[in-house]
Amino acid sequence: MASAIRERLSADIKTAMKAGDKERLGTLRFMMAALKQQEIDTRIDLDDQAVTSILTKRASQHRDSITQFEGAGREDLASKERAELAVVEEYLPSPLSAEEIETLILGAIAALGASSIKDMGKVMNELRPQLTGRADMAAVSSSIKQRLGG
């Protein structure tokens, strides 16, 4: 199944080329290259969930870079990373609120009958498709661990 996100990205690359928006075009091409590389490595066509996962990793890398550049006093590089992050985030689903995330966590724990830290993997696997690209998975993991008494 072809990815609608990838098709949108391809169309936006053409639009950025026609508009002469070099900064946006560079970011879009870099995103497309990451998707193509994953397809080559895995030899499968990516679906929207896989594309979202890859773009979520890219967004996380940009956030890490921003933190490092700001810490080093390189505001010029940090602002470039923020601009690229904004472009990547256009292709990610809207983030969930903390309350929505907690509701999903509690629902998954109840549905699976999870009662101990040993069940954490099952809960994470249940939530991953719903939360990928919409929540910080490290924070979700921490919250689940806390609820299961870890």
Could you give a quick summary of the protein structure above?
The protein is an all-alpha fold and 150 residues long. It has helices at residues 4-19, 22-42, 48-71, 75-89, 98-112, 120-131, 137-147. It folds into 2 domains: 4-89, Orthogonal Bundle (Hypothetical Protein Yqey, Chain: A, domain1); 98-147, Arc Repressor Mutant, subunit A.
Tell me what the structure shows:
The protein is an all-alpha fold. The chain folds into two domains: 86 residues, Orthogonal Bundle (Hypothetical Protein Yqey, Chain: A, domain1); 50 residues, Arc Repressor Mutant, subunit A (Orthogonal Bundle), CATH 1.10.10.410. It has seven helices and no strands. Helix 1 packs antiparallel against helix 2 and helix 6 runs antiparallel to helix 7. It is globular.
Descriptive terms for the model:
mainly alpha; Hypothetical Protein Yqey, Chain: A, domain1; 2 domains
